[in-house]
User: Which sequence fits this backbone?
């Protein structure tokens, strides 16, 4: 799939000497939802700011749809919508005025019907004449999203868009994201809610200490690094695991009533079937079976821990 954003050897060192980015290479595919995960201070916001032309990198290159953002800021910036972490909507303008201004700022012709559609999708239509300073934090977050969408961008950056907001906004936000993706918009998000990345993203990128640790299709990441656990509740307690089950490295619970088998998600189901056959051959009966699978959060924590 064609890349709409190409980041090559991107580094950023601040005057204080802090190295926020260190040789980042990254391609974002056109029309995908890409989740960028990382602990606080990992470089997520700096990377987004560099791609958006807000922060000047120390070295490296950023291409947005083939345009070098360092040489021609206007064109790539017009393609990008950014929803920042910080709430900066404390002015006395109305919701309608600030969203209309954002559209005009990028040279787009007036289109009240489109802005009405955006505001309604974010449950802001009834607040269109309200002054920003009077709005709640959740409503201000919605306005930031509306401002980012006002000029009909082809790329949307969402930097912690649902941090500290209510469940209703989160739900509306992800419904809108799905609609935007269906229309061809490329979406890059950072989030502390890893369940959101697991639910929404096509690909996952992990950044730590200014370096990209991993970029992988979500399904492939779960397949390669995820683990499954099968717990068998036995009909009668046993003192030890039968020798015939040694090849499976099965664990026995302290009360002798459960056998726990952990295996890679990519393993074939045939091995599980073989285990159950050997269990039956050993004369052990079970009355219940349950399985669990490693979450994306578990994988993320393990990846970051490996980097320490």
Assistant:
């Amino acid at each position: 799939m064609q890349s709409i954003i190409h980041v090559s050897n991107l580094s950023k060192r601040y005057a204080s000497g802090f190295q926020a980015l260190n040789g980042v290479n990254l391609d974002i595919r056109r029309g995908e939802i890409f989740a960028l995960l990382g602990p606080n201070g990992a470089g997520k916001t700096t990377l987004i700011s560099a791609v958006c032309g807000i922060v000047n990198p120390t070295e490296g290159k950023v291409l947005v749809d083939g345009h070098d953002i360092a040489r021609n800021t206007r064109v790539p910036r017009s393609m990008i919508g950014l929803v920042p972490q910080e709430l900066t909507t404390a002015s006395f303008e109305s919701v309608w005025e600030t969203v209309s201004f954002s559209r005009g700022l990028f040279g787009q012709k007036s289109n009240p019907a489109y802005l009405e559609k955006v505001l309604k999708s974010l449950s802001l239509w009834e607040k269109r004449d309200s002054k920003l300073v009077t709005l709640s934090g959740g409503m201000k977050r919605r306005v930031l999203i509306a401002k980012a969408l006002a000029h009909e961008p082809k790329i949307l950056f969402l930097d912690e868009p649902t941090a500290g907001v209510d469940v209703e906004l989160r739900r509306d936000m992800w419904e809108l994201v799905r609609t935007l993706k269906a229309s061809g918009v490329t979406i890059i998000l950072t989030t502390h809610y890893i369940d959101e990345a697991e639910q929404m993203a096509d690909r996952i990128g992990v950044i730590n200490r200014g370096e990209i640790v991993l970029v992988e299709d979500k399904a492939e990441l779960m397949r390669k690094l995820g683990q499954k656990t099968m717990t068998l509740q036995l009909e009668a307690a046993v003192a030890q695991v039968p020798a015939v089950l040694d090849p499976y490295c099965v664990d026995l619970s302290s009360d002798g009533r459960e056998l726990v088998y952990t295996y890679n998600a990519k393993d074939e189901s045939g091995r599980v079937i073989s285990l159950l056959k050997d269990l039956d051959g050993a004369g052990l009966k079970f009355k219940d079976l349950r399985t669990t699978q490693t979450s994306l959060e578990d994988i993320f924590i393990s990846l970051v821990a490996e980097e320490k």
Remarks:
- The mean pLDDT is 86.
- Residues 227-307 form a domain with the Alpha-Beta Plaits fold (CATH 3.30.70).
